Amino acid sequence: LTAFSTVQLGRLLEESLVVRGRTVAAAAARAAFVPMSLEDRDALAGIAAEFAAHRDVATLRILDNAGSLWGEGGHGGAEGRRLLSARAPILAVNPGSGFPRVLGRVEVRMDASEISRRRTALVGTSLVVNGLFTASLLSIGLVLIRNLTLRMQVMVDEAKWVAELKRSNRELEEFAYVASHDLQSPLRKVAGFAELLRESCAGKLGAEADEYVGFVVAGT
């Protein structure tokens, strides 16, 4: 994202700088056609100095069709800097044909060093913004992963607990079955002999004995 933003901003800044250079060159060319028609070098030098004072203009030169320099303006220290060029023709209307006649040209070189500074500032800002955005996404992702991990751990614990409970219930059922089976056989024997005792001794041992035998039969 930072690289893409830097490239796009640099391209836009260069296009904007070239457009400003063409605008300055066209304005200087319109102002220069009368002095150049009169061959007024002093006026052309003044025009060059005036338009060269615009922001980001490194040098501005006014030349005739032969390439001779008629006026020049600009600030020093442009050597070693990245410059973007723009130009505009100096036109005068030809009374005979009605078509414009080219008297010369204005050449402008724009200082592009500000683009590098703006790119550097953009890189720093983009790194901070994109870094904070990425850190936020990572933080949110870690929180979501942690919550998901905790939920999965709870589910695993619940599954283990349910499995342990099922195993315990199964063992309890097996124990109950075994205990019930082991108790049924002797109790049937006790019940059978108690019934025989009640039938064979009924009325012989007294009413109280008959009552006790009835309790044994009912209890078994």
Rg estimate, integer Å: 54 Å
Structural class category: alpha+beta
Helix share of residues?
55-70%
Q: What is the 3D shape?
A: rod-shaped
Q: N-to-C SSE series? A: HHEEEEHH
Strand content: 15-25%
Strand order of the largest sheet: 2-1-4-3
Reported for the largest beta sheet, the result is: 4 strands, antiparallel
Helical element count? Answer: 4
DSSP E strands, number: 4
Distance between the termini: 89 Å
Indicate the low-confidence ranges by residue numbers: none
Q: How confident overall, as mean pLDDT?
A: 84
Oligomeric state as shown? single chain
Describe this structure in words.
It is a single chain. The chain is an alpha+beta fold and 220 residues long. Helix content is 68%, strand content 17%. The chain has helices at residues 2-37, 41-52, 113-200, 207-219; strands spanning 57-64, 69-74, 83-93, 100-111. The protein has a four-stranded antiparallel β-sheet with strand order 2-1-4-3. Helix 1 runs antiparallel to helix 2 (41-52), helix 1 (2-37) runs antiparallel to helix 3 and helix 3 packs antiparallel against helix 4. The protein starts with a helix and ends with a helix. The model has no long low-confidence stretch (mean pLDDT 84).
